[in-house]
Write a structure and sequence with these properties.
The protein has about 350 residues and is an alpha/beta fold. The chain has a single domain, classed as P-loop containing nucleotide triphosphate hydrolases (Rossmann fold, 3-Layer(aba) Sandwich), CATH 3.40.50. It is built from 11 helices and 10 strands. Strands 5-6-4-7-3-8-9-10 form an 8-stranded mixed sheet, with helices on both faces. β9, α8 and β10 form a beta-alpha-beta unit. α2 packs across α11 and α4 packs parallel to α6. The chain is globular and about 95 Å long.
Length: about 350
């Protein structure tokens, strides 16, 4: 006679297995079989096994990093000046915009995020910097220095300047790695400064994609793209918008990008044609056309802005008009916000 096989059951029932799926022993020693059908019990066991596998997978899966909270910059207006390629006069535009907004009554802080450290040559300090401070800036400041006010340089043109600082190549590489790993490094330091409502922060960035531009666009409210009216600059404009979409993301407080065409030369046919094409393509997003003007270049030789020394050429007038246009697009400053 064939010996009947004993029913097989999982040696260690899963914790989620229901009591109905297991035969219970009554006080009389007889098994109280569950009322469900075998099909229902098999389905319960299958579900219990699936839940056990899912729980085990969840416990062994790598933890997802929590996105750090964005800094609270209150009602500060953060503007990033950027370009797709170098040599377009981006720092000149940033310095003159800062000087122009200051003359119009706004409190302005300019942050040099470009390793070239060029803004210190556009905005002359009110008083000579001590030798030990001549090369200092945000790039070589200690991370423990939470308040950057001690790094600010008062300039003759009016805006406060946070220089980038001069660092060695190995220091630059380490600094950029740090920026890549800490998305809101810049935003946290600006937040710690306690800037007044209505203040304008202008961020000057190096051309093209970089950790510096990523830091800027993570907190900026609008971007100003500077371009020349030539073929190379025109073909590079889509890159600027792609970078903005990539770095800004879906932030509700980002008001979009505007464009400035620099060094417009009406005496050159191609220059005029490309300028016209840009005007037609950009429409209202074009907020400035700056004509080529030798007085703007001459101002740099004296560490001054064209706005500051009140040149009388077409380029100077364009820069003033550009600052006035942008001023009209900024939210009104609250009373008592004249200082940073």
């Amino acid at each position: 006679m064939m010996t009947p096989l004993a029913p097989t059951m999982p040696p260690n029932p899963a914790p989620s297995e229901t009591a109905a799926a297991r035969p219970a022993q009554s006080k009389t020693g007889q098994t109280d079989w569950p009322a469900e059908s075998l099909q229902d019990l098999l389905a319960q066991l299958k579900q219990a096994e699936s839940e056990a596998v899912a729980n085990a997978t969840a416990n062994t899966s790598p933890k997802r990093l929590v996105e750090p909270a964005a800094p609270d910059l209150g009602k500060v207006n953060v503007i990033t000046v950027m370009s797709s390629k170098g040599g377009v006069g981006k720092s000149t535009i940033a310095a003159n915009l800062a000087a122009g907004l200051t003359q119009l009554g706004r409190s302005v802080l300019v942050v040099d995020l470009d390793p070239q450290n060029a803004l210190i040559h556009h905005l002359q300090p009110q008083s000579p910097r001590p030798v030990e401070d001549a090369a200092s800036g945000i790039a070589n400041a200690s991370e423990s220095a939470s308040d950057w006010r001690s790094l600010c340089v008062a300039t003759a043109a009016g805006p406060a300047l946070l220089p980038h600082g001069l660092i060695e190549e190995n220091e630059r590489q380490a600094f950029e790695q740090h920026l890549d790993s800490d998305r809101y490094w810049l935003g946290r330091h600006l937040e710690a400064m306690g800037l007044a409502d209505g203040a304008v922060v202008i961020l000057d960035t190096p051309p093209g994609p970089s950790p510096y531009l990523r830091q800027a666009l993570a907190i900026t409210h609008q971007a100003i793209v500077v371009s020349l009216p030539d073929a190379a600059s025109y073909t590079a404009l889509p890159l600027a918008e792609k970078l903005i979409r990539s770095y800004v993301g879906e932030r509700d407080d980002f008001k979009g990008c505007r464009y400035v065409i620099n060094q417009v030369d009406r005496s050159r046919q191609l220059n005029r044609d490309v300028s016209l094409i840009m005007q037609q393509t950009l429409g209202e997003r074009l907020v400035g056309m700056i004509h080529r003007d030798q007085s703007v270049s001459d101002a740099l030789a004296y560490n001054r802005t064209a706005v500051e020394q009140e040149a009388h050429g077409q380029g100077f007038q364009d820069l003033v008009r550009f600052a006035e246009t942008l001023m009209g697009q900024l939210p009104c400053a609250s009373e008592g916000s004249a200082t940073l």
